[in-house]
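Q: How would the structure tokens look for this protein?
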Amino acid sequence: MLPLWTVAEIVAATGGRPEELSDGPISSISIDSREIAPEALFVAIRGETFDGHDFVGAALASGASAALVSESFHAKDGGRNLIVVPDALQGLIALGKAARARSRAEIIAVTGSAGKTTTKEAIRTALSAAGETHASVKSFNNHWGLPLMLARMPRQARFGVFEIGMNHPGEITPLVKMVRPHVAVITTVAAAHLQFFNSVADIAAAKAEIFLGLEPGGTAVLNADHDYLHILFNHARKARVGRIVTYGFDESADWRIEQVETTDSVTTARVAHEGERFVLTLQVQGRHMVANAVAALAVAHISGEGSKVAIEALAKFGASEGRGETTRLGPADRPLILVDESYNANLASMAAAMEVFAGCKPAGGAKILVLGDMLELGPRGPALHASLKDKALATGATRIYLVGPSMASLAEGLGEEAVVSHAQTIEEISETILSSLAYGDAVMVKGSKGVRLAGLVQAIRDRFN
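A: Here is the predicted structure in token form.
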């Protein structure tokens, strides 16, 4: 089997210059010197808080075959086993474009205000049953994550699934033009990153940039369960999208979710499409999770793999860490139920998560809710946080802990009877929350990544596992 790349191919793709480096296979690509595999290429990109060039020596010492570095680094420090380019990030982008150009895979791109990563994982699950599928890891969906994921795509992959993120207008356009998908999925449009937009309608227009990189004759797959579908349709038509397919609970959806039933941690849904009825079973709770899975079902159908294989694969699909993963810690007869929603939060994902938690039954103990700030909401932030009041109360939580300055408006709305404590940072309140938990309780932790609630989740696991 051919390697991921050869040194000669990387030199040709990036226009780089080999320095004391022989041709040979490259089996992996990394930007983290702590994650170096044999025959790896280390790419020394500069981040906001680090410069990969500081770790070139460590990467090579750990077994990397070569390092892609900027000309300024070589001019200053020299070195061997290097591929020198004017700028390492631009070299990585060139390598990602070369990977896309050589690939014969069916390419799918996913964006949206919520559910991007979960939908990407559902699509990966559905397509992997049909053939070798390469997909973005974690949330590597930005100006360096996306070209890295493209550059890692095996030349023999049958499918490629890529997540595209944004928090400013114009960010999606250059990314999707790198990916050049055959299928573009928009999971939803909601109030997220409003600090950088005048309205949710403007967010819809920014999400619609994904159509600008769609391959000729390509298909747009759109969630129909929001108020901005007409904006997406208008932009799709302007971009001359070949076909538009919708999914969701809306009566007009091409893939219509008709009925959802949940038992313990298993969800069963009935889905209608072109006169046929399908039964979809998932190892996860939540109407929003069903919608994510139906998007994957639609993509599998569009890709020519049919519905049966996708449905069988999705029967094993569950929530991932930080995105609704539910864990039972401790004794089987009286576990502490931990719902981990610590990775991200906006108005749509908050509402969806609390709707799921409302159906969660503790094993004889209390029900606890830990909510952290939704970041990047701008001037509308206080009002949007306050709007969570009814959803929070509907969860049935008897103790609510709030974290972050923006949660002040929700604390005021809920009142002292509902809110046990409100702190500015998780560090101030973490031990208080931990000390209040017991086996038999159910606790959900939800907030934006920047609030650092993942540390609390790990502390709960450590104490109660």
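The first strand starts at residue 5 and ends at 6.

The mean pLDDT is 94.

Upvote if useful.
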